[in-house]
Design a protein that fits this description.
Layout (H helix, E strand, L loop, with lengths): L4 H13 L4 E5 L6 H9 L2 H7 L4 E5 L6 H11 L11 H9 L4 E6 L2 H6 L5 H10 L4 E7 L13 E4 L5 H11 L5 H9 L4 H12 L4 H11 L15 H9 L2 H4 L3 H9 L6 E2 L2 H8 L8 H10 L4 E3 L6 E3 L2 H9 L7 H14 L9 H4 L3 H11 L7 H16 L6 H8 L4 H17 L3 H17 L3 H17 L3 H17 L3 H18 L2 H17 L3 H18 L2 H17 L3 H18 L2 H17 L3 H17 L3 H17 L3 H17 L3 H17 L3 H17 L3 H17 L3 H17 L3 H17 L3 H17 L3 H17 L3 H17 L3 H17 L3 H17 L3 H17 L3 H17 L3 H17 L3 H17 L3 H17 L3 H18 L2 H17 L3 H25 L1
Parallel strand pairs: 1-4, 1-5, 2-3, 3-4
Antiparallel strand pairs: 6-8, 7-8
Helix pairs in contact: 1-2, 8-10, 9-11, 10-12, 14-16, 18-20, 18-21, 20-21, 21-22, 21-23, 22-23, 23-24, 23-25, 24-25, 25-26, 25-27, 26-27, 27-28, 27-29, 28-29, 29-30, 29-31, 30-31, 31-32, 31-33, 32-33, 33-34, 33-35, 34-35, 35-36, 35-37, 36-37, 37-38, 37-39, 38-39, 39-40, 39-41, 40-41, 41-42, 41-43, ...
Length: about 1050
């Protein structure tokens, strides 16, 4: 960049020192506005202030409405298609409010000049200007600025370059400046693009004197600046290049220029793409020679910043040529090229096609629109428009302009039906569900009119999916069954199998698992009969996941392994990877963590071979979850961070958010609550940017749980309520129910039991309405725990038993086992130890059936606690030791540590203090290995109590103080208070009454802060006891 140092310093000064910072860079075409703006955005000081990832450059070229500008901004912010439904302007504004950012709206006059006052884009720009942390740079031709209530506006009118700077440009391109060159530079008034074009002509061999003579003849044709002409006096310079001897030598050069001007993203410069283009051009077009001509006169250039490189036309030249008539016209040829390209690469699910199609989508959009101006409209153009719209939806840009033109072109009825079905998907992505339903029903009517049963099946399938999204399960069931009939009549095995699989998922959602199994088996049977290996394998995955839901894990394993064989036979790397991934999840369910690790690593290798970044990231996420189960937190952290890197590379904002949530959970386990909070908040930003209401709600939900850990209950309540609001907006009944359940749990912690009961009952109603048996059972389970806290044991028993019924109906063995274990706890409260024993033993049977080692271990521990109550210490010891074995098998350090703690308590009861000490010390080691601060502190407290029994008061004091430090680190006020009470008792034993008073008083403060009434009462009692001891001491002294 030459001659713009002073202007750059002005812009930098505004961006670095003002809030808000608003800059408008004005000037005629080719004056260097874009170059200056990009130089500022890439300046190190700007990067340091705003961050590299929060600088956005958005070209308004081709943008003519405020809605189109919002779509371009959504692309820059990586907001996926599924979240561009309603209130896109609010979503974009919300994304910009999250952190300081700088945005450049380049060529803003394109939209500003098209709209008439009052301009909608000025209203939108006013809202951007109101964000104090958003710096705005606007570049536009002309002298007028947008009518926006700027708080403070820096207006920068770019003046022509000085002669010295113009000479520097010529010297860099050509090498020398003579008198004729200097005359030319003075005549073009220092417009950077004009200077560059002239220098290129000189470099190409035309003499400076000849150029000067041509200038004298042609400069009178200059276009005057006016509101209807954006290119100003650059036209003269462009016309000089167009009429140069080299361009005049072959008229086809102008035709190629006109063709390339239709491509806003340029054309790929690799040999394969150029060769394919040649086959679509007339024989007399010598493409390589003509491209070389355009580049030599600087009408085209090669952008080497991309791989492959791209042949581009400078924007002012593209606009100039758009007004000029180029003969012969090659529009039809470039349309044919891109119609063939999109038609031959229509499968957006094939990862190998993404590098081919995604860089061309803007070109395809532009060219297809041109195609509808060529008559007659060919069927191939309409089909290409459908394929383009499907691709646009896949990459998160639900545009309807091209498919609307296809509909308006009046194609034959079958194609018209396909267009209506296609646009219904666009409406569905925008959450315009009524419009989507109308369009797909129009498509079905057209298919029936032309008696195309296969297409009718497709339309019915799409309608069924729409009903599923609306939770209209009865209508969805009827529609899927009609789709099956249509596909069967059309002898489409794949369509029939696909509909059976969707019907099975519907039954699964309702908890009708037998019907779901029948549907999946029908899909497998149909695919097998048709020898469709891929769909047979896909259907086996559906069936395997159903068996996992039923805890029929052997059957699930068989299904997944059969699917792996079929995908291997079909050489489908992604499908094979998917089944290895599912198999890994099954092994996780069985607590076969070594086998799970092997499966996930196999999936990872397959995804890497298939260049599937999302699949690779998913495998790393699952490995992270596995390492979390093993308490290998460092390995888990590495996996999650690697997954985040891959998702960023793939620009998969949603998956990146999910991985950040998992990383936050890991930090919660380590009691690194600040790091956890950072992860959750970053995830919230990403989900908000992507307009993913569910994802944002999930992260707020996790943040609420973090606040609970910190005893920041007000913040937790706010987070859960925000999540609740988002789930309601997304019409996510399960999310609403989950948030209500969490609010209920929070209210229980506050002893606001009436509010908690109301929340749980509301959640139960919603889950019942959504036919979600598992979640309804979970909420009843929580309601039972509430009644347990109120000592309403009859109501608790009713809730647990109702939950057990629902879990049985849903064939949820795990849920039934959990409820039976809680029912056992209830019976323990009632001293119905026989009933409790029956419940625990039945829970153990169910956990064994589900091959859930963790659940079995937990129930054995509860059974051990029961035997401790009965003084059946031998039976208790057996239970605790078996639980320890199971936890070791599951590689669950935390469960093993908890059981060792209980075993230590048993040895304390037997006065086997050496054995107790060994157990407590082993538990401490395990908790340290797992970085479980709470568990380590609990075992330290138990060991301290043991030393109290031995009168090893110094050792006990050391352990109590260490435990207090750990609880402070974990921000666990209640447990810290408990240990402070124990430390106070120790000081009482030593007659250190002042120290004892300090400990009891601090414990009292913490119990009050945590709203723990029982703890508060205990500390008060301890202080009263201390005062009595103090009084007795004074009397004795007297």
């Amino acid at each position: 960049m030459f001659g713009r140092d002073a202007e750059k310093e002005v812009v930098l000064g505004v961006l670095l020192n003002n809030e808000p910072a608003h800059v408008v860079i004005l000037g005629s075409g080719g004056m260097g506005k874009t170059t200056l703006a990009q130089s500022v955005l890439h300046d190190g000081q700007v990067i340091a202030k705003y961050g590299a990832q929060y600088r956005y450059f958005v070209s308004c070229e081709g943008v003519t409405t405020a809605n189109e500008l919002l779509s371009e901004l959504a692309n820059a912010l990586r907001i996926p298609a599924t979240d561009r439904k309603d209130d896109l302007d609010q979503r974009v504004l919300s994304a910009f409010r999250q952190q300081p950012a700088v945005i450049c709206l380049d060529n803003f006059e394109t939209i500003w000049e098209v709209e008439r006052p009052p301009r909608p884009v000025e209203r939108l720009l006013s809202e951007f200007a109101a964000i104090s942390t958003l710096a705005i740079i606007i570049t536009m031709r002309g002298t007028q600025t947008p009518q926006v209530p700027w708080s403070e506006l820096c207006r920068l009118d770019l003046q022509p370059l000085g002669l010295d700077s113009s000479i520097q440009i010529v010297e860099k391109i050509y090498g020398k400046v003579d008198e004729f060159t200097e005359k030319l530079l003075r005549e073009v008034d220092g417009i950077p693009l004009a200077v560059k074009l002239l220098a290129s002509l000189l470099r190409d061999g035309e003499s400076s004197e000849n150029l000067w003579r041509r200038w004298e003849r042609e400069r009178t044709e200059m276009i005057e600046i006016g509101s209807r002409h954006r290119l100003s006096n650059l036209d003269t310079s462009i016309q000089l290049s167009l009429s140069s001897p080299r361009m005049r030598a072959d008229n086809n050069a102008a035709a190629i220029l006109g063709m390339l001007c239709l491509l806003p993203d340029g054309f790929p410069g690799d040999a394969t793409s150029l060769d394919r283009l040649r086959h679509h051009l007339p024989e007399d077009i010598q493409l390589d020679k003509l491209l070389q001509t355009l580049m030599r006169v600087s009408l085209a250039y090669t952008d080497t910043t991309l791989t492959p490189s791209r042949i581009r036309i400078l924007s002012p030249i593209r606009h100039f040529c758009a007004r000029a008539t180029t003969q012969p016209n090659l529009s039809a040829h470039i349309v044919a090229f891109y119609v063939e390209l999109i038609s031959n690469n229509s499968d957006f699910s094939d990862g190998s096609l993404h590098p081919i199609i995604q860089p061309e989508l803007l070109n395809i959009h532009s060219v297809l629109i041109v195609g509808y101006n060529i008559t007659p409209v060919e069927d191939t153009l309409v089909l290409a428009s459908i394929d383009y719209t499907d691709w646009a939806l896949y990459v998160g840009n639900p545009v309807d302009e091209v498919i609307t033109l296809a509909i308006e072109s009046g194609p034959q009825l079958l194609l018209l039906g396909k267009c209506h079905e296609c646009i219904s998907t666009v409406y569905e992505h925008r959450n315009q569900l009524d419009e989507a339903e109308t369009s797909v029903k129009q498509a079905i009517e057209l298919y029936r009119k032309v008696q195309d049963v296969l297409s009718e099946g497709s339309g019915l399938y799409s309608l069924g999916d729409l009903y599923m999204q609306r939770n209209q399960l009865d209508e969805a069931e009827t529609t899927f069954k009609h789709a099956i009939e249509a596909y069967r009549k059309a002898q489409s095995a794949r369509g029939e199998a696909n509909s059976f699989n969707s019907l099975g998922e519907l039954y699964k959602q309702r908890g009708q698992l037998d019907e779901a199994e029948t549907s999946f088996k029908h899909a497998i049977e149909v695919s097998h009969k048709a020898e469709d290996v891929l769909w047979e394998a896909k259907s086996l995955e559906f069936l395997g996941n159903l068996y996992r839901r039923r805890y029929q894990l052997d059957k699930a394993e068989t299904s997944f392994k059969h699917g792996i064989e079929l995908f291997y036979k079909a050489q489908d790397l992604d499908g094979e990877g998917d089944h290895f991934y599912s198999l890994g999840n099954l092994y996780m369910q069985r607590d076969q963590l070594d086998d799970a690790e092997t499966s996930f690593k196999c999936a990872l290798k397959l995804y890497q071979k298939a260049q599937d970044l999302d699949g690779e990231g998913s495998s790393l996420d699952s490995l992270g979850d596995l390492y979390m189960r093993r308490d290998q937190l460092d390995e888990a952290e590495t996996s999650f961070k690697h997954a985040i890197e891959l998702y960023r590379k793939a620009q998969d904002v949603l998956s990146e958010g999910h991985s950040l949530d998992s990383l936050g959970d890991l930090y919660m386990r380590r009691d690194q609550l600040d790091e956890a909070q950072t992860s959750f908040k970053h995830a919230i930003e990403l989900f908000r940017k992507a307009q993913d209401l569910d994802g944002e709600g999930n992260s707020l939900y996790s943040l609420g749980n973090l606040y609970i850990r910190r005893d920041q209950l007000d913040n937790a309540e706010t987070s859960f309520k925000c999540a609740l609001k988002l789930y309601r907006k997304a019409q996510d009944l399960d999310g609403v129910g989950s948030s209500l359940k969490s609010l209920g749990d929070l209210y229980m912690q506050r002893d606001q039991l009436d509010k908690a009961e109301k929340s749980f009952k509301h959640a139960i109603e919603l889950f019942h309405k959504a036919q979600d048996l598992d979640s309804e059972g979970n909420s009843l389970y929580s309601l039972g725990n509430l009644y347990m806290q109120r000592d309403q044991l009859d109501e608790a028993e009713t809730s647990f038993k109702r939950a057990i019924e629902l879990y049985r109906q849903a064939q949820s063995v795990l849920g039934e086992g959990n409820s039976l274990r809680s029912l056992g706890d209830l019976y323990m409260r009632r001293d119905q130890l026989d009933d409790a024993e029956t419940s625990f033993k039945r829970a153990i049977e169910l956990y064994r059936q589900a091959q859930t080692v963790l659940g079995e271990g937990s129930s054995l521990k509860s059974l051990g606690d029961l035997y401790m109550r009965r003084d059946q210490l031998d039976d208790a010891e057996t239970s605790f030791k078996r639980a320890i074995e199971l936890y070791r098998q599951a590689q669950t350090v935390l469960g093993e540590g908890s059981s060792l703690n209980s075993l230590g308590d048993l040895y304390m009861r037997r006065d086997q203090l050496d054995d107790a000490e060994t157990s407590f010390k082993h538990a401490i080691e395990l908790y340290r290995k797992a970085q479980d601060v709470d568990g380590e502190a609990e075992s330290l407290g138990s060991l301290g109590e043991l030393y109290m029994l031995r009168d090893q008061l110094d050792d006990a004091e050391t352990l109590f103080k260490h435990a207090i430090e750990l609880y402070q680190k974990a921000q666990d006020d209640v447990c810290e208070a408990d240990i402070l009470d124990s430390l106070g008792e120790l000081y009482m034993r030593r007659d250190q009454l002042d120290d004892a008073e300090t400990s009891f008083t601090r414990a009292l403060e913490l119990f009050r802060k945590a709203q723990d009434l029982d703890g508060e009462a205990d500390s008060c009692a301890a202080l009263q006891k201390l005062q009595i001891q103090r009084t007795q001491g004074l009397l004795s002294a007297a």
